[in-house]
Specification:
Four copies of one chain form a homotetramer. Chain A is α/β, with parallel strands linked by helices. Chain A is about 30% helix and about 20% strand. Chain A has 15 helices and 24 strands. The interface between A and B is large, with 59 and 59 residues.
């Protein structure tokens, strides 16, 4: 029962964060209506929030065409009858959504939402200002999508042949947003850790005033200088971005409901592998190191959203190895958010059961900071430290004589590695290094090991 | 595993809302440390937030002496080793806490928390400004305790003999807070519906800028006018406030761990009642109306926090009647938050089981808006509409010829009612009216019924 | 991880009970294989048991054509690849199942299951003897389906024109089962409370030896006497039995997955009712009595399985009124088990919210044993006690001058009631009476009330 | 609401199994009363069963003095007011319990429980026959404690100086139990895998008839031959048995409520270790193999109940390393059941976090069946296969040239191993071998590795 007798609080604004992608979506509502901003594909969380507030979801708003995850807007529309809204100038003819334009309004009880057209990150980008109709004419907050982040602004590298134009558009859009006033709280579509902006704060709360005074990009007051700064930026574009854009233009592939996960016995796992399924081991790096199914890929749950799109084709048939069915289900949801729906089961009974049933297993050596230090000191031959972090991380600090090859580029540029060399792979802590090592092994490079602790251990040695 | 390889987001700020009391507490942290602002007594929620972020709680901060609920600070300190901080000038010698003063700092990773002394609501009130050490010198936000709410300011009626002094102090404190700048986000200790402020917004997010421009009390720029406005306010003080203050000065009575709830059979409930326990029926008003244990009090779960303190002595032995053990447990937690620890069990098997076992039951008539309209039209004799809402609600709108007596004052002022008159009790929807009707019945007034729908139905007739 | 190092226990036998229908299904397994006996439609429970034992479900066995619930065999087959087995002589051509015959075996590790053809209750009835291949040649237990219950034997009234033949067949079948030996434990398809047998024990564990010595029907050693006893029995056949038989012959209508339940606002509920949906109130009788939506039917969750089939057409569009979404979901599952799939949502915000929104409500009077006693004593005119229990309950004990009309027959025989008479409805405790009263009200009889406590209160007066 | 209108089933009998110890306890009840047979220390499961049946627990029965786990009887008595019953002739003066004797009765509704004195396993052993007062005079079942198991009988090695006497007493007791008749179902206190009997069936359901005909020990019809067979048996007695007996005589040390588990950061774990806490790693063997905290002991959750009592002192301060807090909590409960209450926290953030923070880690090599086969073939020098299974497992099948030393005896007999030899440890699958290897490492033997898959892999090679 959500009816409360004393001074009912109807207005609500809740953040839904999707880990791995650092994606932020928002539910705002008043009275018996609610709106979801930039919903993800697994939409139960929005339905639960709305229901707990006694509200029905009436609209889903896309602040821009999403390229890094599958939108849940079309699904929300189907489940709740909500209207999907998006900005003008979309690349595709998006049949499931209605176009909104500058100054269009949505009113929910005392909440008033107003559209600002803010192209730049994409042509169809919009921001949504929030007003409380009972309390003055100043915006209380603004959903900024991928236009303005806490500590950064949106990337503008998606239209390479019109790079200056879109960077300039973003400059103008930011000024339009800032004009809402210092008091407006900022609600962006991404937090730190996202692949969509690189200088973000570690913080997920700020106001236009704080950003105006402290966001480095907003300190550049000259339009040309701003454009040049954007042109100088470098961003990664995982290949699955193109798939996401296409799916989102079509309405987002609907998730299989429910996300069923078949438990696999030893025998069933073995048969799936023979039958062409890729085995994805979502357990911790040290568990994979200890023993794993031969030719399986290490991809810990927390890295699925960021790296599956670099390493796996969306149509590849997959089976999971996990600690437990709960962990496997979490992995399934992470895969689903970025469009991987071909997961045919999960084996969760561990490598003792696997090996006791007569199945072969592999191990992968872990080395410590002491081992690495010694080898560097001794200048070991035919041995190389391979750093798979992002270029900007490597540029910030690297171990002398290490080689850099970004994990996301590993499959494409593996030819740069030497099969006669022994590689010790490192990253920030050893997680991405284990993913990389498993991919190298899968490609037939057997003299591979992982530096557990990696830069963390190096800096704490 | 909270270790995430990509751009770890460590800084976090989470709201914990306690329904019924509209109490807001906050957890802020960075890296492996966290601070809780104004914790309530059931502290598991704070431990869970900290753990999910990989942080240990190092401090609990009391922005002021709480009068409306039991503080969880002493319990948090015991469970986690956290240091409890409070402001100077406390009424009592609070042995479990350390006094902080203007400009004292707590640093958690990149978060810097700075103390502002902001007396007014209480002498010991403080506010806590939030800075991001990586991003400029402007406060990102401020925990304002009961000094500044969204749409209102703190009440200043707790020191009747020094009323002008404390109202003036609040004026000065608000100016000190506003000086942090328009960009700072406001994080108060109460949301709308609280007994601590009456003009609050229906909204729980705002910034100093938005409040400066729109909060009615902040528009009064003259100190004397502000003081006069505060003196003119009227507030309720439930008798349990004094108990809370005393317990909080002592460190908060510790909650029995775990909050065990004995299920009662029909026989056991009957014996508890004979043995002097008060029976509290936490089911919905219509369920109580249909059938209830004779002499039980109706107090739906959502009203416990607001009304138990008016109706029940904190030492009264209680037993619950609930729909389910889950509902009974929710009631138990609500009672516990305001210091009622003598709950001896719960009966959850319904009135069919009760009556089939040979036990007597009572019913309480519900009447509709049509019934009430007709009686008013016919000017029925010896009949009275009794409105038990707050005075300010009654002043805003009331049904002609109805009598007002606030539910909180019902027991004390029951002598104002006439035993020869038949009363139909109303409130906003019928919930508080049912509580009132059960209290009147318990006191021996039998000709009582409830207007289901109450003002809601009246306005929709 | 289910691998346990020490003396792995692989053999398992678990009971799954479906309340309301008193239906018992069983999962037996050893090693990595399991068999489900008489699965219900919501099959997750079987999948969970199998997975927790590390087993795959290889077979589903139907001991007979189910008439009182929808079988989950076809669904299990689809989800797991299991083979469905049933006995010979089925009425229909059941395409999804394989026929087994006398002495057919299924071997699961050390468990050996052997088919016994045991016609009588239905032509296709089989029993399944359980052997432990490591421990002797005697059956450890036997799944008896609807052939033998604890304290009773199966009903034989489904083929009225061949009544003697099937009763005789049952006699022979029981002797075949008893020949397995006193040591065999009995695992039937129904426990006490089922509509399929009337003399059952209150107990769900027994052995062939205990039944041979104590089951009243097994004391009749003469075949003709046994046949006569069966011919003398009287059983109810709810109209939905025919629907179940038909659906089960076709493979069981598949359940919508997941069983989604739309929460309804006041407005949505009101529109659904206008749009022709029947409102089913699954809250407790006293809650319904207190206030309910006009023209809604009372059907507490625990009575759905037993009475929906008498009162509602399987294609009728339904909406629920419940205390909580959890209660509504439980109701949904109960409806689903007997083929009611047209549930379009649930309203769970109570009658205060409903009436405060301006919607009309109804109440239904509850009377106590004292009221009833007084009226009987005073021989009140134009008033009648209406007992809606089963005929056998009424025959066992009834209140003098009460009228009997079984709840299941109420709609069909309502013409037997007098619209000029005031009825007080009773049953065992008041639950079925409330269902009956709501049905009478729905049919336009307004002078109806319920005796809360009913026979329970009468016997404890 | 457990009140069901139709043919209420009140009689219930539920099994509660404690994995690891293969301990079986039982709840039997009728109407509003229930009895628990041989409760374990974490008693919530019994309270939940009783409540779901609407019953209060009136008695706890100890079929004998428990030596392998802490009894929950005294705790149940405190929580529910239940009376604790035990047999005559107890070694200790058990103040919290009441002595029952031959033919004493407890009646619960229609259930009648009758005491049989059945000394042998212990002097105070009793069995409890179950009767249904409505259905004849034959026992429906019997709780046999540690007197009779499915496939075996109780061990009689606890009184070495009176071995013949107690073995003879058991013979007589078994005959007394069998006299209840073939039809009685057997409900013992242990299932397969227990340390209390060695020839048990893989099955947990049987009747006296099936046991009479198939239990090997019951085929010995000569008293002297039976005594001799018992004298010839060999059993392990972990040192903690003496602690359990003492605690149970005193009433069972009460469990700390709730079982709180402090999450530990890297820093906190490191400090706990320096401070003298033993680190117990409850993760899977392959995870421990991959990377673990130096000097930690491997003890996977499923082995805690069986091996903690051999390896750890009950007063040893412990901290856990686990995959997740859920796994750590499961470990905590397992430790608690056998009296280990000094668990000071759990680290669940994995070895990447640990090593990235600059902490050292260790690894432990896993070898495959191919590695082992090759070494055996090549007769590798200074290398030994060490089998740590139970003597009876080793006697049944062993790899040629392997050495046997039971895991439980490892610490006591480590002097039998040669520090100049390299050991590959094996067991059934690798789990116990990993525990043994970690204990050897902890004792300073570094040239140790584990045969993953062990006898399972050997037999499937």
């Amino acid at each position: 029962m959500h009816v409360i007798e004393e001074g009912v609080v109807n207005m609500f604004l809740e953040k839904v964060k999707t880990p791995g992608l650092a994606h932020l979506s928002w539910v705002i509502g008043d009275g018996d209506s609610a709106v979801v901003i930039d919903p993800r594909r697994d939409i139960d969380v929005y339905l639960d929030i709305a229901r707990s507030q006694g509200a029905q979801i009436t609209h889903a708003i896309e602040t821009h065409r999403n390229e890094d995850l599958i939108s849940g807007s079309a699904l929300l529309a189907e489940e709740t009858g909500a209207t999907v809204l998006h900005g003008p100038n979309a690349d595709a003819d998006i049949r499931y959504a209605t176009t909104v334009r500058e100054n269009d309004h949505i009113t929910l009880g005392n909440v008033d939402l107003k559209v600002l057209e803010t192209p730049g990150h994409t042509y169809d980008s919009i921001s949504i200002a929030i007003y409380d109709r009972n309390k003055g004419d100043d915006a209380v907050g603004v959903f900024t999508g991928d236009t303005l982040f806490i500590g950064d602004v949106g990337r503008t590298d998606f239209y390479p042949d019109r790079a200056e134009e879109v960077a300039g558009a973003l400059f103008d859009s930011l000024n339009k947003v800032l004009a809402l006033g210092d008091q407006a709280i900022v609600y962006p579509a991404h937090g730190a850790g996202a692949v969509c902006g690189s200088g973000m704060a570690d913080r997920e709360f700020s106001s236009l005033g704080h950003e105006r005074m402290n966001n480095a990009m907003l300190q550049i007051r000259d339009r040309e200088a701003f454009i040049q700064a954007k042109l100088d930026e470098q961003h990664y574009q995982p290949p699955y971005f193109r798939v996401m854009e296409k799916l989102n233009a079509e309405g987002g592939r609907q998730a299989p409901k429910p996300l069923a996960l078949k438990p696999l016995t030893v025998k069933a796992l073995s048969e799936k592998q023979k039958d062409g399924c890729e085995i994805i081991d979502v357990r911790s790096p040290e568990t994979y190191a200890g023993a794993h199914v031969h030719d399986s890929i290490s991809l810990p749950v927390g890295l699925i959203a960021a790296y599956a799109g670099w390493l796996l084709d969306t149509n590849q048939r997959l089976v999971l190895v996990a600690n437990s069915l709960e962990q496997a289900r979490e992995a399934l949801v992470n895969f689903s958010r970025i469009g991987y729906d071909s997961i045919e089961g999960a084996y969760t009974d561990g490598m003792t059961g696997w090996s006791a049933a007569g199945q072969p297993f592999s191990t992968l050596p872990l080395v410590s900071v002491d081992d690495v230090s010694r080898r560097l000191r001794e200048k070991q031959d035919h041995w190389q430290l391979l750093d798979v972090r992002k270029a900007e991380e490597y540029q910030q600090q690297a171990i002398e004589n290490s080689t850099h090859l970004y994990l996301g580029h590993l499959q494409e540029q593996m030819h740069r590695l030497d099969r006669g060399t022994s590689y010790t792979v490192l990253c920030g802590s050893g997680m991405r290094a284990m993913v990389a090592a498993s991919v190298l092994r899968r490609a037939g490079m057997h003299d591979v090991e992982v530096f557990l602790g990696s830069m963390g251990a190096w800096n704490n040695r």
